[in-house]
Amino acid sequence: MAVLQAIAIIELAKKGWVESIPNQTRAWAVLVHQLLALTLQFGGISPERCWGQLSVVPDFSGITHSEFEILIKHMIQTEVQSSIQLETDRALWWTFAGGQVNHTLKYGLQFHHDWKIISDNFKLKIEGDSVGYATLSLAIAQMSTPTFWEAPATQRFILSQLPEYRLSKFQRALPEVYSLEMVSNYLLDIPGVIKFLNLNKLE
User: Is the pTM of this model over 0.85?
Assistant: First the structure.
C-alpha cells in the first residue's frame, strides 16, 4: 500500500498536482519538542547551549533570541509546580537539572529533614513522614540563597555526607579536607543550584 501511495504521489507531482511545502522559520511547537529532547538527552542543559544548537536550524531562524528567552521563562513558570509529584510519604521532584545540581539539592534538603533521598540526572525521589508541598517549598526557598550554602553548619553537614569516592590514585596523599574538596567539586554545583532555584521559584 505504501509503495502504491509513493508512486501516486510521484505521478501527481509530475503533473503539478502536489502542493508545495512552505518554508517554516518560526516552528514553535517543534522548538518546544527539541528543547525537551535536549534536556532529556543531556540530563539538564542551559538555555544558552540550547540557543546555540537550535538557532542555526532553518525552521527556527525567524525566532529572535529575546523571543526564545520569553519562551523559556514561560515554560518554566507553567511547569514548575507540576514538576513536584506528591504521594503518600513520598515526592518526586522532576528537575531535569543534571546530576551535580540534583546531588547538591539532595544534601541541602537533608540538612533540615531526615528524609531518604535518591537523586539522578532527572529527578529527586524524596521519602519521609513530613514530605509535603509546604515543607518542600520552605526548604527550596532556604536553598535559593547563598547564605544557606555559606553557613558553616551547612558546609560541615555536606562534607560529612559526601561518599568516600576515589577520583585519583594520589588522593590518599591529601589531607582529608582536601580530599573532600575534590569529591565536593566533582559531585556538587552550588552556584548552579542557586541559579536553578531562582529561575524555578515555586509560587
Answer: no
